[in-house]
Amino acid sequence: MDWMILKRVFVGGGKNFVRGGVVSAATVMVMTVTLGIIGGLIFVSALFSHVLETIKEKVEVSVYFVTTASEQEILAVKSQLEKLPEVVSVSYTSREDILTQFRSRNVGNQLNLQALDEIGTNPFGGRLDVRAKDPSQYEGITNFLDVSPTLSAGGTSIVDGTNYKQNQDSIYRLTIIINAIRDIGFAIVVVFALASILVAFATIRLAIYTSKEEIAVMKLVGASNAYVQAPFVVAGIITGSIAATIVLFVLWPVTWYVGAKTVGWFDGFNIGQYYGSHFLLVFGIVMVSGILLGGVASIFAIRRYLKV
Question: What's the pTM value of the predicted model, to 2 decimals?
Fold first, then answer.
């Protein structure tokens, strides 16, 4: 296709869009709603991801050590755990800090404090708090603690126990909930995206219907299918680009207003700040979606009118 034909295609596409008038405006409005839904789904997906990560961060397994375990031995276990690929972080709490925390929590409970004083020594051992990448991986981490030879000093295990068994049911249910949220979120995105695409396709098809006689004349005088399609594809791309631009402008004040109102609902997630920090990502998805939706929908919508 030489430059003259390319110029005619783009000029023809612009004329088709302008000549469409009310129909073109209606198509832009429908496409704007469609891309607005797609843009909204980006934030919903980000919110789901944030909620899942927040839930995961609140789940951990504590490893308790015997009182005779030295700090050096516990830190050696910590080093071994940190080498596991499924472990995100391991934090160490000394037996002295645990004693201090116990006294602080029971400052108003004289019975517990009196019992502690009667013991005369620190009854607590050190503790490691292990956080995994996924809740389903805690069982494997616990099994590692049971079989690892690095957990013995003088032939005696320095691990007093873990709270995995107590939390196992909760961790299992949490894993199911996380997987369900992930699957439901994906299904919502797919359903709304498909519905939006179908609505946009129907609207573009209506816009092309108004030019069916012009298409028939072009075919009768020998124009190729590609030459007939090209201006309408360009008009579809223009429609999608304009709709995407409108959506990107509208999302800015809307996300900042909604984000300021709902930041406390979702553990600090602010969609306005997310939009600002991920603008290029949102811009790319919305703009490319608009261009592809307008162009591809135009190609399919005009096919029925190419047979003369």
Answer: 0.63
